[in-house]
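User: quick one, fold this
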Amino acid sequence: MSWFTKHIKDKSGRIFVLVSMAVIILSAVIYSIVVSKTNRLADEHIAEVNRQFERIAPITQAERAALRTYRNEEHVEMAQRLGISGIRSRATLDSLTQRGALVELKSTPYYVVREMEHAAPFVTPSTRNLLELIGIQFQHTLLSQGLPPYKFVISSATRTEEAQEELQETNINAAEVSSHQFGTTVDLLYSEFVYAPEQDTLPGGFWISRRLMEQRIYRANSNLTETKQAVLKAVLGRVLRELQREDYLLVIYERRQPVFHITLARDVPDPSPNGVPMRPERPIPISPRVASTAP
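Assistant:
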C-alpha cells in the first residue's frame, strides 16, 4: 500500500467518524425539539380540556327529578307494548336471536358492553338502534363543548323469566315483573365512562411525535373519567332527558344502583344505515356551570 493510498483511507475514516458524530448530534437535537414541542402542545390541549370541563355544571336536583318522571310500572307497560313477551330461558333467547327478533349487543365506538349478572346482552333491533343514537348524541354533544369523546357503559340488558325468578330469591327488592324481561330495557352506568381515542382529533403539525401525543392525551383523558365523572354523568343525563322529551325513551335515574334505567318508547330506525353515523341536527343543550343544589 502506497503512502498516498494510506493517507486517503485515513482521511476518509476521519471524515466518516465526523459525519457520523454530526448525524448523531443532529438527530438528538431534532428528537429533543420534537419531544419538547409535542409535550408543550399536549400540555396546552390537556389544560384547555380541563377548562372546558369546568364550564359544565353537575346534574341539578331539577334535572334529577325530570329523569325520574316515569315510574317503574310505566317502564314495564312500555316494554310489554314494544317488546317481546315470554322470554322464558336462555334457549328462548337463542331461538329469538336466530329468528332476528333479538340481536346481540357488542361494544361499539359509542358504548362498552360489560359482563352481565342476571341478564344477557340481547335486545330488540330497535333498542340497539336507540343505544347507537344515544352514543352519537352523547359524543356529538361532548365534542361541541370542546370535550373529548367518551363511551357510556351498558351493565344490564335482557333478563329471562328464569333469571328474574332467581333474582327474586336473593333480592327482596326485585319486582315480580321487570321491564328488563322484554328486550327493550337496558341500564347505563353513570359511574363509569371509557375514553374513545378512535373518535378524537388530536393536535398535530410539523415536528410532532404522533405516538407521544397519543400516549399523553390517552392517559390524561382516561384519568378524567374518574375526576370528571360527575360532568360526564350530567352530559349523558341531559342527552337522555332530551331524547325522553322527543319520545324516544323513558328513563329512571336510579338511587340504589349508579345507573340510568332506560326503556325504548318508540321504533327507532338505524342511525347509521350506510355505516356512516347520522350527524345530529344539533347538540343537546349543556348548562353552564352554576351553583348546583344537588347533594
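User: anything notable?
Assistant: Confidence is low (pLDDT under 50) at residues 290-295.
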